[in-house]
């Protein structure tokens, strides 16, 4: 099968993660990974993003498949159940809104900017070396720290399940994947 | 010899499919596709039951089974 341009989008995903180590403001670019899949599912009613363009999925496929960093075992049954997938989506959403709330607090001046990246919603990792001030408002930086936390956390989870199960195990419980599939189901019923 | 020939085909447990499209990427015959972003569907005419999709499927919801042709 001939490789297409979109088969190399994993390079962008990797670059994104690396850029966050140098300047946290690059984290804003991650919004593309939120809006593009939603727009494709809303407009076209397909999971075209997952199927073709998802660089993160490609990265897991490459590391777990080509580089063999995966046990290639079946994912546990509960992890592919609707309970877990929808539950994880709700949890992810809740954490996302909490992050937005923290951003709002900084914008409103009620709280100071915290130069940390929160891994797995728990571990606060100092990240001051990637912050060099912002021209706009510290709130914009707070969002960047929060959003990068979301992206790094999901990458770490994805890497763990990649090693334990199949390369793209993340795709089974990816909140964006679950959400776009729900949108497609609703659109299809209409 | 029996005249019944056994063929192997891929079957998708569609209720558990997440429509990620990993199977589509590996199918050498283009015999599997994602319908309406909901689930994968196998074209029984094209499928030769090689099992690449089953191996790739991150949710392991594809199984290759023997069918009587």
Description of the structure:
The complex is a heterodimer of chains A (190) and B (69). With 190 residues, chain A is mostly helical. Chain A has helices at residues 10-22, 32-44, 48-53, 55-66, 82-107, 138-164, 170-173, 175-189; strands spanning 116-119, 123-126. A two-stranded antiparallel ribbon of chain A has the order 1-2. In chain A, strand 1 (116-119) and strand 2 (123-126) form a beta hairpin. In chain A, helix 2 packs parallel to helix 8 (175-189), helix 5 (82-107) runs antiparallel to helix 6 (138-164) and helix 5 (82-107) crosses helix 8 (175-189). Chain A is globular and about 50 Å long. Chain B is of the alpha+beta class and 69 residues long. Chain B has one domain (17-68): 2-Layer Sandwich (Alpha-Beta Plaits). Chain B contains two helices and four strands. In chain B, the strands form two sheets. In chain B, strands 1-4 form a two-stranded antiparallel ribbon. The longest helix of chain B has 5 residues, at 22-26. The chains are: A mainly alpha (190), B alpha+beta (69).
Which tags fit this structure?
A: 190 residues, mainly alpha, two-stranded antiparallel sheet, 8 helices, 61% helix, B: 69 residues, alpha+beta, Alpha-Beta Plaits
By DSSP, the count of extended strands of chain A is 2
| Low-confidence regions of chain B | none
Number of helices of chain B: 2
> Which architecture of chain B per CATH?
2-Layer Sandwich
CA-CA gap between termini of chain A = 35 Å
Strand order of the largest sheet of chain B: 1-4
Tell me the count of domains of chain A.
1
* Strand line-up across the major sheet of chain A: 1-2
CATH topology category name of chain B: Alpha-Beta Plaits
Mean pLDDT across the residues of chain A is: 95
Query: N-to-C terminal Cα separation of chain B, in Å?
Result: 15 Å
The total tally of domains of chain B equals: 1
Helix and strand sequence of chain B: EHEEHE
Question: How many alpha or pi helices of chain A?
Answer: 8
Radius of gyration of chain B: 12 Å
Order of helices and strands of chain A: HHHHHEEHHH
The major beta sheet of chain A can be summarized as:
2 strands, antiparallel
Main interface: chain pair and counts: A-B, 33 and 20 residues
């Amino acid at each position: 099968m001939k490789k297409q341009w979109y088969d190399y989008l994993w390079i962008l995903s990797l670059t994104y993660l690396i850029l966050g180590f140098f300047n946290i403001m690059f984290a804003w670019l991650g919004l593309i990974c939120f809006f593009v899949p939603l727009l494709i599912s809303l407009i076209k009613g397909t999971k075209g993003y997952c199927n073709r363009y998802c660089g993160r999925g490609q990265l897991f496929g490459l590391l777990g498949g080509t580089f063999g960093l995966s046990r290639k075992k079946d994912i546990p049954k509960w992890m592919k159940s609707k309970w877990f997938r929808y539950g994880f989506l709700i949890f992810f959403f809740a954490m996302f809104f909490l992050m937005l709330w923290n951003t709002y607090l900084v914008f409103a001046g009620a709280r100071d900017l915290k130069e940390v990246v929160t891994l797995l919603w728990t571990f606060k990792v100092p990240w001051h070396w990637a912050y060099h001030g912002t021209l706009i408002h510290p709130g914009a930086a707070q969002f960047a720290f929060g959003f990068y936390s979301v992206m790094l956390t999901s990458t770490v989870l994805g890497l763990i399940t990649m090693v334990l199960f199949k390369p793209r195990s993340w795709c089974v419980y990816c909140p964006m994947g679950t959400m776009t599939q729900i949108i497609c189901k609703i659109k299809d019923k209409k | 010899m029996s005249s019944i020939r056994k063929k192997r085909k891929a079957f998708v447990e569609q209720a558990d499919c997440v429509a990620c499209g990993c199977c589509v990427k590996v199918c050498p015959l283009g015999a599997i596709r994602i319908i309406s972003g909901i689930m994968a569907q196998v074209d029984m005419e094209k499928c030769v039951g090689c099992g690449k999709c089953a191996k790739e499927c991150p949710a392991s919801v594809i199984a290759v089974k023997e069918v009587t042709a």
